[in-house]
Amino acid sequence: MPLKWNSIHAKLLATYLVLxxxxxxxxxxxxxxxxxxxxxxxxxxxxxxxxxxxxxxxxEALYRNNLEQVQGLVxxxxxxxxxxxxxxxPQGRLLSTSAPKIDRMIKDWSVIPGMKGAIQNKTVxxxxxxxxxxxxxxYTVRPIIYQGQRLGIIRMSVTITQFQRQFRSLxxxxxxxxxxxxxxxxxxxxxxxxxxxxxxxEMRNFAVRLGSGHLGENIYISRGDELGQLASELNRMxxxxxxxxxxxxxxxxxxxxxxxxxxxxxxxxLEALSIGAASEPELxxxxxxxxxxxxxxxxxxxxxxxxxxxxxxxxxxxEIQSVSLRSLINRAIxxxxxxxxxxxxNINNDVxxxxxxxxxxxxxxxxLNILENAIKxxxxxSTVSLMGYTENNQKIxxxxxxxxxxxPEALPHIFEEFxxxxxxxxxxxxxxxxxxxxxxxxxxxxxxxxxxVLGEGTTIIISFPK
Length: 466
What we know:
alpha+beta; Beta-Lactamase; Helix Hairpins; Heat Shock Protein 90; five-stranded antiparallel β-sheet; five-stranded mixed β-sheet; 11 helices; transmembrane helix
């Protein structure tokens, strides 16, 4: 896959490389600098210790005015190759040195680093070039105090040329190690960035295909991390969208079918009236009644579709209040009293006086749809029973009829729009009543289920949290 510099792969790789470069080079630089400082401090400490010890012996010799002993000490502890030891009087005039060939060429010692401070009775430490050379040296200069008297100045310096050569060798080694570490980390980072970027790119392309209408497809990314979980969620979303699309198409087909039937009936009736049926009053009245019935059916269907659409979109606000379940059931029974009389169905109301926090008008609509459905499929002389009780922190309502029942394979679908299990379930209804009831009950945080036995009847169970 070619690397595009504005891609997430390139950004991840660049981020890794920058962080690795900063980390490795800063760490390498810090280690080198710490080693250098440690060595210089160690050398400086050694010089301070030696100069302090020698100042005692040399101070005693100067106190006795024994310059030969001073010269002996300088010769013993000074080495022309590495260590230079110089002794001065309190005014800064050279008394003895371990490097006489060089020092005889110096006329003014006050310009040598550290000497002005020592003349002023101060101890001075530092790093400077050699007296007549370009090599770096660590030096210490301190006054010689003996028996409370200031008898002279001791200046001791050591070359660090060998250390600098070793340090340069160490620098090359560390830089080489850092570069090798950087290259190894770069290879690992490239692999890691690619392993993260490829699934993201695949999911991006998969989302583009979903947006183009290729619903129901799956993406195969076998990972145990968040990217694998995201791929699983995308697959679930694809299947859900495909299911929603199938339901949408089925819904549109059902709506078209349900609308076409009453419209066709009205059209046929009007055509019959237009070609002469209006001249026969009895036939005309029957046709007009048929047209009115179909228009009422069409009006109910449109109203049910509007209610269902509002509930699905969540734009039907609920006016929640505390309502007596008994009074709500009584209102529903009174509203369908005429239908129960015409169907010859009895209502047995055994609902206690429970309190529900619901929208009373919406719940009344849901109960009416369920009761009308129960009455519709109950034979004359049968009973529709209503019960209410509390169980496991749930308030439960049961509506049981003694009708024809529902086939087991059809039971899971009865709350779907326009669903009818067989021709025996056909009626003058819109096929949306139970679907609307389910949406209303779900909007209140409740659940609705059905249990049925063929030839014995159906039980609708509504549960609300207590």
